[in-house]
């Protein structure tokens, strides 16, 4: 039987009855969202694939416990987020990654085209933004990075973080406010105000 046009709840029910193809379809549907959530938590691609795989294994293992209080995607993203946070805690170098992230970090600010001088200024700005994001409280930083990624709705992010929607909105707003203030303190006040 084809499962291409089947809804998540139906696929979940089939997977619970032992249909591995149904669970495979759920994995295919949500693979990129899970990877992006893990990437937002870790800040680098290093380990993200492994943590995403762990999240899918855990979801398969605990599928019978899924109560459908939220969508399957939100439940899955919650598992992925918790796995990523666990991984992040285990990796003692996490803080240093955010202070000096590698150049291929996914949440970099794009460099605008132009002169070499402009490229240097853009690089300095990107580094300043990265440093200031790293200095945010983890709860604010996580909310900001997930919201800035634009991959999930605020409702889904709130579910991932297990917080009320209003709390998420406040954290994102507060993170942006603090980021603007911190950028102003290091000489990017006019720019921080303009980007607001």
Overall description:
This protein has 196 residues and is mainly alpha-helical. The protein has 2 domains: 1-98, RNA polymerase sigma factor, region 2, helix turn helix motif (Rna Polymerase Sigma Factor, Chain: A, Orthogonal Bundle); 107-196, Arc Repressor Mutant, subunit A. It contains 9 helices and no strands. Helix 1 packs across helix 2 (20-42), helix 2 crosses helix 3 (48-61) and helix 3 (48-61) crosses helix 4. The longest helix has 31 residues, at 165-195. The protein is elongated and about 60 Å long.
Which properties best describe this structure?
mainly alpha; 9 helices; elongated; 0% strand; Rna Polymerase Sigma Factor, Chain: A
- The level of helicity is over 70%
Let me know the largest β-sheet.
none
- The CATH top-level class label of the largest domain: Mainly Alpha
Helix and strand run: HHHHHHHHH
Which structural class fits the helix and strand makeup? mainly alpha
In short:
The chain is mostly helical and 196 residues long.
Please outline the helices and strands:
Blueprint: H1 8-16, H2 20-42, H3 48-61, H4 72-90, H5 94-99, H6 116-134, H7 138-149, H8 154-161, H9 165-195
Helix pairs in contact: 1-2, 2-3, 2-4, 2-7, 3-4, 4-8, 6-9, 7-9, 8-9
């Amino acid at each position: 039987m084809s499962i291409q046009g089947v809804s998540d709840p139906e696929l979940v029910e089939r997977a619970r009855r032992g249909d591995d193809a149904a669970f495979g379809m759920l994995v295919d549907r949500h693979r990129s969202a899970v990877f992006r959530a893990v990437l937002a938590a870790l800040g680098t691609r290093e380990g993200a694939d492994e943590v995403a795989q762990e999240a899918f294994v855990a979801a398969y293992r605990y599928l019978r416990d899924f109560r459908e209080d939220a969508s399957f995607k939100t439940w899955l993203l919650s598992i992925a987020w918790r796995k990523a946070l666990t991984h992040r805690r285990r990796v003692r170098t996490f803080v240093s990654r955010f202070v000096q992230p590698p150049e291929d970090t996914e949440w970099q600010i794009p460099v605008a085209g132009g002169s070499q001088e402009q490229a240097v200024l853009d690089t300095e700005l990107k580094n300043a933004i990265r440093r200031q994001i790293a200095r945010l409280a983890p709860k604010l930083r996580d909310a900001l990075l997930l919201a800035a990624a634009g991959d999930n709705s605020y409702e889904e992010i709130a579910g991932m973080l297990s917080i009320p929607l209003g709390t998420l909105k406040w954290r994102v707003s507060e993170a942006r406010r603090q980021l603007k203030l911190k950028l102003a303190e290091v000489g990017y006040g006019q720019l921080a105000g303009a980007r607001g």
